[in-house]
Design a protein that fits this description.
Number of strands: 11
Order of helices and strands: HHHEEHEHEHEEEHEHEHEEHH
CATH class of the domain at 163-269 and 305-320: Alpha Beta
Low-confidence stretches: 324-332
CATH architecture of the domain at 163-269 and 305-320: 3-Layer(aba) Sandwich
Shape: elongated
Distance between the termini: 95 Å
Largest sheet: 7 strands, mixed
Number of helices: 11
Oligomer: single chain
Strand content: 15-25%
Length: 332
């Protein structure tokens, strides 16, 4: 390994992470052929092949798997050394990789913008996916830490809650249940739902809620996008069980409403999760602490009062509807 260069080690780490020469090349701002050449030169230094093919995917050979942990540790040590030198120069720099579930994209960019304004020398890299995808990124050391709604129970990790997350059922204002109050959970058994895919934390929470209620509503459609689900609900295609933060803008504007269902909203928490085995850089730890300290305030300012406003609109609509009915009865 003495003849290996830093460029070769970075190329190797990224190809191993992405299982693709093309995606590694895009991150390095190189051509795939240039990355391939770096890997070939590294394999010559090692004397063994480091990658093979499995269908369309690039996979590590036994030699590659054996070298990957040490190479990643070496790259991390160099990154830490670079941060130390920059601190001595009076500059705060570094690269922080964050994994976030798709529900958190409705508030996390505001948090990151505030952090970046205070720490302009720190580069932020964000990966978005469902809960299973983000957990895989975390376990593979592809992100420094993750933002999610349900911390893993079977993973050696530190989880810190920083804000509440309400989950409820959203509907179009013209849905027949939209203006009902104290809706029994059992009444949802006859309703149609648009749902998230299996592997999503929201889907797991929904399945758990309905299982506890011993009902299984009809699923009209399964979608991997919150935006697509909201559009389907706006079109009155069915109901959806979502984080109210996901539908915050639509709830505030009245395009959607949250149903007044007994036992809802379910209150979970937003968590920052990192592996116990992973030592965070100063830059990563700085962002992690920033999210823990200020995340709740940012979310409260952005979404505070959603449930209250939804309830007020429902009561107002009910009053109007009752007034219309009374007028209809009194009309000669």
């Amino acid at each position: 390994m003495r003849g290996a260069t830093l460029r070769q080690l970075k190329a190797f780490s990224l190809v191993a992470r992405h299982h693709s020469f093309g995606r590694a090349a895009a991150e390095l701002h190189l051509t795939p052929s240039a990355v391939s050449l770096q890997i070939k030169d590294l394999e010559q230094c090692v004397g063994l092949p480091l990658f093979g093919r499995h269908g369309r995917s690039t996979i590590l050979t036994p030699a590659g798997e054996a070298l990957l942990p040490d190479i990643n540790r070496a790259l991390l040590a160099l990154k830490d050394a670079d941060e130390i030198v920059n601190r001595l120069r009076g500059r705060e720099t570094g690269v922080v990789s964050v994994g976030m579930i798709s529900n958190s994209k409705y508030f996390l960019p505001r948090l990151l913008a505030r952090f970046h304004a205070m720490h302009p020398g720190i580069e932020l890299r964000v990966t978005v996916g469902n809960r299973d995808q983000v957990l895989r990124h975390l376990m593979n050391d592809e992100v420094d830490f993750a933002i999610m709604g349900q911390p893993p129970k079977d993973l050696e990790a530190h989880s810190h809650a920083f804000a509440p997350q309400p989950l409820g059922i959203i509907a179009a204002p013209e849905h027949r249940l939209a203006h009902e109050t104290c809706i029994p959970v059992a009444d949802l058994g006859s309703q149609s739902f648009i749902v998230r895919e299996i592997g999503s934390g929201t889907r797991a929470a929904m399945d758990r809620f309905f299982s506890d209620a011993h009902i299984a509503p009809y699923q009209v459609m399964e979608l991997t996008s919150n935006e697509s689900i909201k559009q389907a609900v706006i079109g009155n295609m069915g109901l959806a069980f979502l984080s109210l933060h996901t539908a915050g803008l639509e709830l505030q504007s009245g395009v959607l409403c949250s149903l007044d269902v007994a036992g809802l909203p379910v209150i979970r928490s937003w968590y920052v999760v990192r592996l116990k085995s992973t030592a965070l850089s100063d830059a990563s730890e700085s962002l992690r602490r920033f999210i823990i300290e200020f995340g709740g305030d940012v979310i409260e300012r952005q979404f505070g009062g959603i449930q209250q406003r939804t309830t007020e609109r429902r009561k107002a609509a009910t009053t109007v509807a009752e007034g219309s009915q009374n007028s209809a009865v009194a009309w000669p």
